[in-house]
Prior knowledge:
There is one protein chain. This protein is an all-alpha fold and 69 residues long. It folds into two domains: 1-36; 37-69. 96% of the residues lie in helices and 0% in strands. It has helices at residues 2-36, 38-68. The protein is elongated and about 55 Å long.
Amino acid sequence: EPPMFLSVIETRPVLFDILCLFAAVAYCFTIYYSIVGWHFVLPAISNLTASVGALVAGAGHDRPSRKAA
């Protein structure tokens, strides 16, 4: 019995920590969304993704101009 008990203790924390991490992140996001509001959060996320996409798309066009200048 002791080896089985030790093996359970050794294998459990990895999954348990991952589940706790996801639960804590989801809980913090729900609190943040309830306080801030979805109408503020969703435009911010869309603007962030759009800005990142613009940077990735415009990276090839910006570098030659910077080198020429």
